[in-house]
Specification:
This protein has about 230 residues and is of the alpha/beta class. The chain has a single domain, classed as Spore Coat Polysaccharide Biosynthesis Protein SpsA, Chain A (Alpha-Beta Complex), CATH 3.90.550.10. Helix content is about 35%, strand content about 25%.
Length: about 230
């Protein structure tokens, strides 16, 4: 029976936030963003009897050292990388001795604290026992334009069949490992796992999720996350 492993990418510096600490450690509603994210995943892991949770952590990250003291020892750690893709690759190497090729790995960004447990369950149900993996996403509702020099519109973009892709993204361990190994060998860098799997010939499924599953990048995002989390309770 394939097991589920959870990997939280938590090694980003959050430069665009302009904060004195990495954005995943900024407080929202009295607690660091990362703690809200971990709450959801710990609840999901307990309900589905997940095999384990691994958090990718940058070298010298003292904030994580403080947070992990208040969380179960079953949460393991792997080294961060220079890019998000390298952080995920390192996480897969940490799992190498524990995960089977057919096990599932759910990769999630630490700075997406508003993901709902219901959407994670929906993603897991969508991939089923077979398939080529999947990612949570949301159809684009706004008009889309391509701009050129000076920010001037140069073309309309048809929004039909365009989606914003979120995390978690869920793939077989061997499938994701091999896709990232191919990318590294070719000198390619991908922002997410679905892109790497697609480039390796896969056809990931997109599963509709709530638009509240935002990635906190700017101060405005921080305020929006606080509102969503307060509403969820």
């Amino acid at each position: 029976m394939p097991r589920q492993w959870i990997f939280i990418a938590n090694a980003g510096a959050g430069v665009r936030m302009g904060a004195p600490v990495p954005k995943q450690y900024l407080e929202v509603n009295g607690r660091p963003l990362l703690c809200h994210t971990l709450d959801t995943w710990l609840a999901y892991a307990g309900a589905c009897d997940a095999a384990g949770i691994v958090v990718g952590v940058a070298d010298g990250d003292g904030w994580w050292e403080k947070i992990k003291k208040n969380h179960p020892p079953s949460i393991h750690q792997s080294p961060g990388g220079a890019t998000r893709m390298e952080t995920v690759w390192n996480g897969l190497q940490t799992l190498a001795a524990r995960a089977d090729d057919g096990d599932w790995v759910l990769v999630h960004d630490a700075v997406r604290p508003c993901v709902s447990r219901g959407d994670i369950v929906r993603l897991a149900e969508a991939v089923g026992e077979g398939g080529e993996g999947a990612a949570l996403a949301c159809p684009i509702a706004d008009s889309v334009r391509r701009v050129g020099e000076g920010g001037r519109i140069i073309a309309d973009v048809e929004r039909k069949n365009l989606w914003r892709v979120f995390t978690p993204q869920m793939f077989r361990y061997a499938q994701l490992r091999d896709a990232l190994a191919r990318a590294r060998a070719e000198g390619e860098v991908f922002d997410d796992e679905a892109g790497a799997v697609q480039a390796a010939g896969g056809k990931p499924l997109l599963v509709a999720g709530a638009a509240a599953n935002i990635k906190v990048t700017t101060p405005d995002d921080l305020a929006l996350a606080a509102a969503w989390l307060a509403r969820r309770g």
